[in-house]
Amino acid sequence: MGKLCYAMDLTRNSYYLWLHDKNRKRQARKNLLSVRIKLVFMESAKTYEPVRIHKALQAENIRCSRQYASRIMAELKLRSVHKRAFRVTTNSAHEFPVAENILDKNFSLEAMNTVYAADMTYIPTRQGWLYLAVVNDL
Questions:
Q1: What is the C-alpha separation between 39 and 78, in angstroms, rounded?
Q2: What is the DSSP secondary-structure string of 56-120?
Q3: Interatomic CA distance for residues 11 and 4, integer angstroms
Q4: Phi then psi for 30, rounded to 5 degrees?
Q5: pTM exceeds 0.85
Q6: Smallest Cα–Cα separation from 32: which of 59, 72, 5?
Q7: Helix (H, G, I), strand (E, B) or coil at 33
Q8: Dist. CA 71–CA 59, nearest whole Å
């Protein structure tokens, strides 16, 4: 070891300090955990939260607390994404009169500006709801 330290222009003492440095080992473990957490997160299609990441690591015999996994995920800016559940907004079971279907799917009309079709939908955004209304001349 002495020749290697001499060639690298290091003292033996600095080599042994580096060898037994706990921060170096801790950083190496954190790097390995970061890579594994990122892989598990991507394999889950970005849906796993820290609790499930922790369970996946335990299943692979990788020791890590849930809080530490959460902290690493926060440092890597990994946030789980979930689709919103489908919500029915139309109430078809009502007692109100239903308009008569006078068009009866006959879309071949001779003149313009005689029959219109319209629809409206809601679009959720980060700033609130947007409302989209469309009117078509059939």
A1: 11
A2: HHHHTT----HHHHHHHHHHTT-----PPPP---------SPPPP-SSTT----SSSSS-EEEEE
A3: 10
A4: -65, -40
A5: no
A6: 72
A7: helix
A8: 20
Task: Match 């009502």 to its residue by tokens.
Answer: 94
Backbone angles phi, psi at 49, to 5 degrees: -95, 175
- 84: tokens are 């919103």
Q: What is the DSSP letter of 48?
A: -
Residue found by looking up tokens 């009169």 in the block: 97
Q: CA-CA-CA-CA torsion for 33, 37, 38, 44, nearest 10 degrees?
A: 160
The series of mean pLDDT values per 10 residues for the chain, 138 residues long, is: 76 79 83 93 92 93 92 93 84 85 80 87 91 90
pLDDT at residue number 101: 85
**DSSP helix/strand/coil, 43:** helix
Residue 117, both tokens: 């079709």
What are the Cα distances from residue 78, in Å, to 44, 52, 86, 127?
12, 13, 25, 23
